[in-house]
Amino acid sequence: VHQNIQSLTGKEIEIELFVEKLNIHILCITEHWLTGAHPAVILRNFKMSSVFFRRTAIHGGSLIFVHNNITCKERKDIVSLSVERTVELSCVELERFIIVCVYRPPSGDFSLFEDVMEDVLKRLSVSTKKAIVCGDFNVDILLSNATTTRLLNLFKCFNLNYAFSEPTRITATSASCLDNIFHNCDILGKSIITNLRSDHCGQQITVLNNINKDKHIVKCRPITKSKLTRFKGEISSKIPALVFKNGHPDSIYGTLFNIIENEFNKIFNFKHIDFNKKIKFSDWATIGIYKSRDNLYELYGEKQYNHTPAFLQHVKMYSKTFKNVCFHAKSLYFKDQIIKSDNKVQTTWKIVNNETGKAKSRNVNFELIINDNKVTADSEVASTFENFFQSVPILLTDSLNSSPTAAQSLLRNNVNECNVLFNFKHISAYDIIKNFKLLKQKKTGDLWGMSVMVISNIIDVIAPYLAILFNECVDRGT
């Protein structure tokens, strides 16, 4: 969708409901009127992927919002071609498309605009990807004049066709097609939309929906009571078979851990959950708000041909009331979330981060490059870290000309003698259980997938054996 918005500030909630209504994935906006001094505009489930701000003047500008589940990158080489108050560009590149959003002010030098756009279109033409160039060109293609001919010929030279030939800006005295979408791709559908506060209509096109999307597939291990019970039973039956006498604590601990890990992987197997389902944007919106939104859209539609002062004033007041109601409903929704939360501080910060765009999705896909080989399996990543930290003291000191005698001499000559004596003593299973219960019961798994909650289910089973191992290490001095 492209929309000349004529000031984005204060319309965020309205746009949030708008993109949900029309199931929009990419929203291109001209005349956002923002400056670099403005805080970033947050649109839920969208990222501002490319933006041009004016530096020396007010108003104008262009930007592109892209849905979070679509992978894209900003084409800074194209954005940098922008000339303030002449041709203002934002641009993103997707897997199959390059999308450019253009704002040409009516007072801008058309010849300079033409030169810059030719450079832009040349850069697009060398790519195998389809091109979509949308925006407010402030050239009425319904008229037959030299400027219109030059604009259409420019795009035609690069095999880009315009999608709309009906008015996109209607006033009491005129109807002109100033906004358009030029493209070289197959369009499944197109429409003129009048759902936002602006004296420009929006333009919407639908293309094949196989653009690159991030796969929101989460790999997790469902933890259920029945599985926890089974896990505890299997551990209880297998651990007593361990031989704890006449064995080195390291090897015995390794065997103990392997038993726990193998049973854990066997019982708590992975499940993949697909989150590519439609997400409801506006959890806070009530049925009444949705009805009012639809009524407002009808009023915006009627506004295209009904220009009586009384009606325009009615639309203005209805829009203002709707905005206030939405703001109040959203505030009540967040307040209710905080009140019902067990951790009010955490919930408050979660809301703040979401609303300010600071919330980031957690990347649980670990990856290491070891000797030009990629390590991606969680267990291999964990083992790699473990081996590194076990061997790093040896690696650091291997090349040193050292000996126990030299080390002892170095300490005596450079470190004051410690007069505080301390010693290790034997512990019991009760000590281990008592200290383990001081840990916060979290469900977050480590690199092996095991969490405090899972281990707490078997701590009473393994604590006696952990105590034996600890005491053996104390006795051996290892």
Automatic annotation (TrEMBL):
<dbReference type="Pfam" id="PF14529">
    <property type="entry name" value="Exo_endo_phos_2"/>
</dbReference>
<dbReference type="InterPro" id="IPR005135">
    <property type="entry name" value="Endo/exonuclease/phosphatase"/>
</dbReference>
<feature type="transmembrane region" description="Helical">
    <location>
        <begin position="447"/>
        <end position="470"/>
    </location>
</feature>
<keyword id="KW-0812">Transmembrane</keyword>
<keyword id="KW-1133">Transmembrane helix</keyword>
<protein>
    <recommendedName>
        <fullName>Endonuclease/exonuclease/phosphatase domain-containing protein</fullName>
    </recommendedName>
</protein>
<feature type="domain" description="Endonuclease/exonuclease/phosphatase">
    <location>
        <begin position="98"/>
        <end position="201"/>
    </location>
</feature>
<dbReference type="InterPro" id="IPR036691">
    <property type="entry name" value="Endo/exonu/phosph_ase_sf"/>
</dbReference>
<dbReference type="GO" id="GO:0003824">
    <property type="term" value="F:catalytic activity"/>
</dbReference>
<keyword id="KW-0472">Membrane</keyword>
